[in-house]
Each structure stands twice: as structure tokens, then as C-alpha cells.
Amino acid sequence: MPEDVIDNALKDIFIRVTHFHDNFGMIGISRELVNWERGLMRGRLFRLGRLQFNVRPFGGRISVFRHKDSNRVQALLNDGIAVNSSGQFDGVNGQFDGNVLRETLCLKLDKWDEVLAYENPILGIHIPAGESLDIQSCADSIDYALEFFPKYFPEKTFKGFACNCWFLDNQFEKILPDNSNIIKFQREFYLYPLSIGGSDSYSRIFGKDWIDHEFKNLPRKTSMQKAVAKYM
């Protein structure tokens, strides 16, 4: 293993322990994170520059096609997935604007190749805390991953990259400016809906006790908190 990969595993543990100390006043690590950190120690998860990666099955209930001539990408929702009137999975925060088109699309298979489907192996992207989400640093990490995994794990093939993260919510396009790193990061990916609501976003933005606050008492210290509170 390259030395920087080993150093970055230890760096992640330091971040987690520091966060625990800031919240609880003692040295430790949250129970729900122990298995995650074990992945770093046992070679199942790797931080390569700004981002972390692991090989896992793709969990998106979609099939992704690429046009043979134009390279345009189009995702189709799998059969049996219910979508509500706002374009999200049925039952998920129905008030949100969606990103699923309700009309049926037909793709000619002599013009389109299926390039990704449910449970295909992918490189999962995870974004560790503690540093700015600089887009060039993220691009460098992905380039690093494209060299690292074929070299050290040639048996672990993968068909693409995927990231599940609270700030990939497409509502941020209405909340944050175009030059925001979050918006820039979103636009590097093909967004699709998940069957989860927004509670994780709220806790990340307003803190773990956000649910106990009345709306008018939510903290508005950071630019993110101010922008989201204003939008809400």
C-alpha cells in the first residue's frame, strides 16, 4: 500500500475521535461508526486524496444507458418502483420537486448500451469531513482511484462511481449559488432519487438536536444554515 493511504486511514480516525470529543467532552468514537473505521483498518475502504472509496454493489433502482454515438447518458427507473406526483419515490417528502420524468421513454438497443444496473459492482464515493470540497481535489481523487484499484485489487472490477450523500439533494440548486462547491460537485454526477427523506440533511446542517427546535429557533450561524432556513 502507498504510505499516504495508510496515513489517511489514521487521519480519518482522528477526525471521528475529535468530533466525538467536541460533542460529548470525552475521548471515544460513535458506536455506529466503529464498523466504518474497521473498514479503513482492514483494507475494505480507502481514502485516496480528498475522497474515500470502496467496492460495493450499486444500490440504485435504475438502469443506465449510454448512446453509442453521442455518449449521452439516460437512466430508466426499474419496474415496480412507485413514483409520486412530484417525481420522487412514493412516500418520500411529497412536497419536494422531483427529478423523475413521468412519461415513458423508449430507447433503441441498437443505439444504446446498458452500462450500469442494480447490484453491478461500483466504486462507492464517500466524502470525509474536515476539508473543503474542492472540485479539483475530488477529480484528482477519482483519477487516483482509477489507478489504485486496478493495480492493488485487479480482481475487483467496477462499472462506475456512485455517491449517496445528503448534499446531493437537487433542491440545493434553488438554495445555493452556482459557484458553490456543492452545486459543482452535483453537476459532475447523474442524479437519481432515493427512498429516504431529508432528516439527515437537517441534522448535518442544523446539528443533531435540530428536531427539538422550533423552526424560528434553528441556528443561523453559517451561510448554509441561513440559506436553508430561508428556503424552508
Describe the structure.
The chain is α+β, with helices and mostly antiparallel strands and 232 residues long. 32% of the residues lie in helices and 15% in strands. The chain is built from seven helices and seven strands. It has helices at 3-24, 34-41, 135-152, 172-175, 181-186, 199-206, 223-231; strands at 46-48, 51-57, 62-67, 73-77, 112-116, 121-126, 161-162. The protein has a four-stranded mixed sheet with strand order 1-2-6-7. It has a three-stranded antiparallel sheet with strand order 4-3-5, with no helix packed on it. Strand 1 and strand 2 (51-57) form a beta hairpin. The protein is globular, with a radius of gyration of 19 Å. 15% of the residues are buried. The mean pLDDT is 87.
- What would you call the shape? globular
Percent in helix: 25-40%
Instruction: Note the quaternary state here.
Output: single chain
Number of helices: 7
Radius of gyration, whole Å: 19 Å
- Per DSSP E runs of 2 or more residues, the count of β-strands stands at 7
Mean pLDDT: 87
Main β sheet profile? 4 strands, mixed
Please list the strands of the largest sheet in the order they lie side by side: 1-2-6-7
Into which percentage range does the β-strand content fall?
5-15%
- Compute the separation of the termini in Å: 46 Å
Low-confidence spans: pLDDT under 50, at least 5 residues?
none
